[in-house]
Design goal:
- The chain has about 100 residues and is of the alpha+beta class.
- The chain contains 3 helices and 4 strands; from the N terminus they run E-H-E-E-H-H-E.
- The protein has a 4-stranded antiparallel beta sheet.
- The radius of gyration is 13 Å and the shape is globular.
Amino acid sequence: MTITKRVTFIAKEGCEAKMKELLAAMVKPSKAEQGCIFYEIFQYENNRRKFMAVETWENEATLDGHKASAHYAVYKSSYEPYCEKKYTDELEVLG
């Protein structure tokens, strides 16, 4: 069963560029991982502090592999000083 998530980040005031840099660095290596079906990060045009990651993984094991990757560890240890709020939604694909 595939797993799809939407992760929303709100950057702290003045930290938009650093947040964008950290999140953008996740895209290419995540897409190259085994089991990654979809992985994109968006920045809202009407609110430059707001970012959204949408990701789909083949299954729980491939998502766990992503969370154990070196690039995930860099992101995980670096984003908090620049992020005001983060929340995750599990999504069900219809169709």
